[in-house]
Design goal:
Elements: H1 7-14, H2 25-29, E1 36-45, E2 50-57, H3 60-65, E3 73-78, E4 82-87, E5 97-103, H4 107-112, E6 120-127, E7 140-146, H5 150-162, E8 170-176, H6 188-193, E9 197-203, E10 213-214, E11 231-236, H7 239-251, E12 259-262, E13 278-279, E14 282-283, H8 284-287, E15 290-292, H9 293-298
Parallel strand pairs: 7-8, 7-11, 8-9, 9-10, 11-12
Antiparallel strand pairs: 1-2, 1-6, 2-5, 3-4, 3-6, 12-15, 13-14
The structure holds flavin-adenine dinucleotide and FE2/S2 (inorganic) cluster.
Length: 303
């Protein structure tokens, strides 16, 4: 089947989309303004820039009640330093313990990287839309990440692993600039052993030790054979990657409404109050961060 999207199609479809559309945010928020007192129960150094923080809600009852879906994020409060949005990286089936893969990039994250096991933080949430895993049932799934994009995608990887019989073929494609930026390398062998899951990795600038594929993430499409007629894809990474990867997905016949991207915008409150994260009249903290690519194409200046 040949699928090609024309510019005119995008323009006419865009009229049907109603961005934003939340009338009563206060009602929608429920008790999301609550901060759960939590403890850092483990810290794993993944790369010189990224650490994985295991964070557990201290109160037993709150811990039991807390749940999230792959693709959602938290507001993480580092006392005395501030609050930042961070994607949840762990399995949604683990109750009240979340894993957060955090890059050292500024004021809050620099301090967080100095914190140890036993330190206290606050978490609010979960916030945002999720990857619509129920739409992928009985379908092939392509999970595609660039760089830090593997952090939110890892939660979806746990989901497909734990519900393996619900999906057909699963391929994980992951690319970074240099080998030293690859996250969760200690899990690759486990992922490859899950029935029917294929993992493909690529780096743009190899070092002497790298024996794998060299190039851009789009080059990995040479490695896969999929039946595009029943395939969904999730793409996580820097916005520049979305365009190239989603065009490639479009070329092989996957329609835009079957591609999902996690759109990161500067966020402050995470709950539609501060107007920091909007794209036009759409608040990415409420309507996103996960959107189907068709919608993203129609959000002016989204990428
Ligand atoms: C929905 C969502 C999920 C996120 N998930 C993760 C994650 O899993 N792991 C992770 O390390 N980071 C994630 N981020 C980015 C993270 O929120 C920022 O890196 C963090 O707010 C930086 O805080 P800071 O005070 O340390 O840095 P600042 O001093 O505020 O900024 C330092 C640098 O980070 C950039 N930055 C700041 N805020 C953001 C932002 N919201 N998005 C992108 N870049 C930003 C700035 O442009 C600057 O270059 C996510 C952001 C969003 C919106
Ligand atoms: S982050 Fe405040 S409105 Fe979205």
């Amino acid at each position: 089947m040949e699928y090609s999207l024309k510019y005119q199609d995008v323009l006419s479809e865009s009229k049907k989309i109603k961005p934003g559309g939340r009338l009563n945010r206060k009602t929608d928020l429920g008790n999301f303004e609550k901060t759960f007192k939590s403890e850092i129960t483990g810290v794993i150094e993944l790369t010189p820039l990224e650490k994985l923080f295991q964070v557990q809600i201290i109160n037993h009852d709150e811990r039991e009640r807390f749940s999230f879906k792959p693709g959602q994020f938290l507001m993480l409060e580092v006392p005395g330093f501030g609050e930042i949005p961070i994607s949840i990286s762990s399995s949604p089936s683990r109750r009240g313990v979340v894993e957060l893969c955090i890059r050292k990039s500024g004021r809050v994250t620099n301090f967080l990287h100095k914190m140890q096991r036993g330190s206290h933080v606050g978490i609010k949430g979960p916030f945002g839309t999720c990857f619509p895993m129920e739409k992928f049932v009985n379908e092939n799934v392509l999970l595609i990440a660039g760089g830090l994009g593997l952090a939110p995608l890892r939660s979806a990887i746990y989901y497909v692993e734990e519900n393996r019989n619900m999906f057909k073929d699963i391929s994980i494609m992951y690319g970074t600039n240099v080998p030293g930026q690859m996250l969760f390398t200690y899990q690759y062998e486990t992922w490859k052993k899950i029935d029917g899951i294929k993992l493909f990795t690529i780096v743009q600038n190899p070092d002497k030790k790298w024996e794998g594929k060299v190039g851009l993430i789009t080059d990995l499409f040479e490695e896969i054979t999929i039946d595009a007629s029943n395939t969904h894809a999730i793409v996580c990474g820097p916005p520049v990657m979305f365009k190239f990867v989603c065009n490639k997905l479009n070329d092989i016949g996957i329609p835009m409404e079957k591609m999902f991207v996690s759109l990161e915008r500067r966020m402050h409150c995470g709950m539609g109050k501060c107007c920091r994260c909007n794209v036009g009249s759409t608040y990415t903290c409420l309507s996103g961060p996960v959107f189907d690519y068709w919608t993203v194409m129609n959000l002016k200046e989204a990428i």
